[in-house]
């Protein structure tokens, strides 16, 4: 087993213009603390107030979705690990990515949802958002994720993209989502 | 004569707004960011106060909202509250929302406008430079 190449990791972060990266179990207070750091970075990065709020909003919705899922599934800290990255792309947009372990069938459902959201234009997304707002609470297995995902899709300047990665020695899959501001 | 329930005086936190209500004048003020994990629990106290005020008094109700960022579950909880106002308005009660926002952040205005689309009671969206009140 090789030791961890910290410099290599740092170079990788720098090369990909990663502003913030987190990998580990998340708590409510950790979401808030990382959120504070994110706000400060965005301010230092001279993001406009609107863009900064959109990035922050996407970060909150995605991490809270993960928290709700992990607690509903009763996952351990290790299985409930979230991976979050906020980076800049070559055109100066902010890229927000978040991922976590999910049951294969939930992963499939999420992937289909993301695909259907990605196919909608802004007017359709707004209509879908308003319809979901009016739905009674606790409807459907992934209830919490519904409204949040639609909100993220509305804010993203590119269609949402998602993927499932299979994991060695685990029947679950790693679901990751990408939004752009 | 109905009995008033206690007024709300809830200090703000990083993820929850300050709340203050005045039964005598029929005013409720909320100010700050709102992204608690369990928004329904948090907004429950506001819902309960407004419900009691509308049932227990005949006076006008004014919501002064200086809310900035709201997560989707806060938006949903707020919609439940505004639905109460709409119902009262339809029954002839004087209800009103004044949503104050910092003109430098148009996202807040857009959010307030999306709320307003769904209601018929007086709903004012007012650009207000942030002077700490």
Automatic annotation (TrEMBL), chain A:
This is Uncharacterized protein. It comes from the Bacteria. The lineage of its organism: Bacteria, Pseudomonadati, Pseudomonadota, Gammaproteobacteria, Chromatiales. InterPro entries: DUF6272. Pfam families: DUF6272.
TrEMBL record, chain B:
This is SiaC family regulatory phosphoprotein domain-containing protein. InterPro entries: SiaC. Residues 11-127 form the SiaC family regulatory phosphoprotein domain.
